[in-house]
Here is the input.
Amino acid sequence: MKQVRAVRTRRLILQAAAEQFDLRGYAGTPLNCVTRAAGISMGALTFHFPTKQDLADAVQLSGIEITRDVVEQTAGLPVAPLHGARALALSVTRLLEECTTVRATARLTRERSGGDGWTGVWLTCLTELLRRAHDEGRLRPRVAPETFAESVLFLIMGIEEYTRCAALGTDGDSPAVRRVARAWDLLLYGALDSAGQAGGNLTK
Here is the structure.
């Protein structure tokens, strides 16, 4: 029973911490905000996570694992590279919109030093898919896959903040997903090789 309670308390702490880090950022989140949100004592929090750094690390690890699972699922789709790259960008957007832990992880990655963190989990895959599309002649020769991926990165960074304050849609795709889909199609229109634009299907 003690072990079950410990697991439940740890999960409660991580969820409360994710909510606070998402809302306030790393520097703006004292531990007492987390304890109040979780409804636990400071002693209970520090038993599981002795420092704020430990707590933030755990939130980021959780968000990275969630994102990695989605990336692996998307990368395994039996579709052309451009289809896969678009699906990946939209999947990351949905995660940001629907999962507080992932959104907190994205913010913590930006605000704390220590490498690419969450961004690298999906950006590496996106770049590889675009590289494959480029090798197949689907993109203009002068369009570097890395530059295309960087443009998508900036788009996702903007969407991260948008999802933090925007309400979820009630019908069909969410507003954030629709925005990213439209922006993606505009980027792709400029990047496609002229032969790849035949037929009007930008992601074929």
About this structure: The first helix runs from residue 2 to 24. The CA atoms of residues 98 and 181 lie 17 Å apart. The two ends are 54 Å apart (CA to CA). Residues 167-172, 195-204 have pLDDT under 50 and may be disordered.
